[in-house]
Amino acid sequence: MPDVLDPTLSARLKRDDAGLVAAVIQQHDTGEVLMVGWMDDDAVRRTLTEGRVTFWSRSRKEYWRKGDTSGHAQYVKAASIDCDGDALLVQVDQVGAACHTGARTCFVAGGDLGAVVGERDPQDDGAPHATPQDRDQQDEENR
Amino acid sequence: MPDVLDPTLSARLKRDDAGLVAAVIQQHDTGEVLMVGWMDDDAVRRTLTEGRVTFWSRSRKEYWRKGDTSGHAQYVKAASIDCDGDALLVQVDQVGAACHTGARTCFVAGGDLGAVVGERDPQDDGAPHATPQDRDQQDEENR
């Protein structure tokens, strides 16, 4: 296995000030969003090549292969990168609970926030209101 | 509507150095992960109270209510916080494409990374290998 992240992919990553990208972990068959973790280049490389998810622990400043202590491993099924390179989506087979609390997901553990529900206007077909492109996000990509 | 984020929720947020948390946006009925955006306290407040998702644009340093330019609004169906307060999961009804490229999701736009697939040991029932708690993530929460 290569011990350096593919340079083409490395060039696409937009890291935060700590050198990390966000990794959204999703159960591959049910679609549940299990947790969000953080990865530096080497955690990305390990996750893409070892069949198991590895994060960078921001608190302990070390690699953390999910499940090595708890048994709650995440087996990688697929991984993709977003359009601007600051987030990954990793689809996994989660053994047991994703959350250290014992909850299936970290969002079940953290809890619902009671958001006001919005309703789509039945007339709204998604046609642009101003321009044919979402300039906002386009700008975002160019940061 | 209140114009300050609920102090109890504010106290739970673990912001990055820029004062932001990650927001995972998921289509409420299909489970598709559409995109990841960033929110400061006021973007969280707006998202929870206005029925539409608002982000903080890191590049333009301004609020960005998804769809105001493109028409591709995100109507909030539910929102939750993770166990350590550094990520939100917002379930939405996405009008049209979530991505400025026209792709349904930003991860479809960014593309698959060809990860090596991992396989769960059929004997692996998720029983702890070392301790009954996932000490790694527990430490993470205490950062």
Automatic annotation (TrEMBL), chains A, B:
Gene3D superfamilies: Phosphoribosyl-AMP cyclohydrolase. Keywords: Amino-acid biosynthesis, Cytoplasm, Histidine biosynthesis, Hydrolase, Magnesium, Metal-binding, Zinc. Residues 117-143 are annotated as: Disordered. Its EC number is 3.5.4.19. It comes from the Bacteria. Residues 35-107 form the Phosphoribosyl-AMP cyclohydrolase domain. InterPro entries: PRA-CH, PRib_AMP_CycHydrolase_dom, PRib_AMP_CycHydrolase_sf. It catalyses: 1-(5-phospho-beta-D-ribosyl)-ATP + H2O = 1-(5-phospho-beta-D-ribosyl)-5'-AMP + diphosphate + H(+); 1-(5-phospho-beta-D-ribosyl)-5'-AMP + H2O = 1-(5-phospho-beta-D-ribosyl)-5-[(5-phospho-beta-D-ribosylamino)methylideneamino]imidazole-4-carboxamide. Catalyzes the hydrolysis of the adenine ring of phosphoribosyl-AMP. Homodimer. In the N-terminal section; belongs to the PRA-CH family. This is Phosphoribosyl-AMP cyclohydrolase. It comes from Promicromonospora sukumoe. The lineage of its organism: Bacteria, Bacillati, Actinomycetota, Actinomycetes, Micrococcales. The gene is hisI.
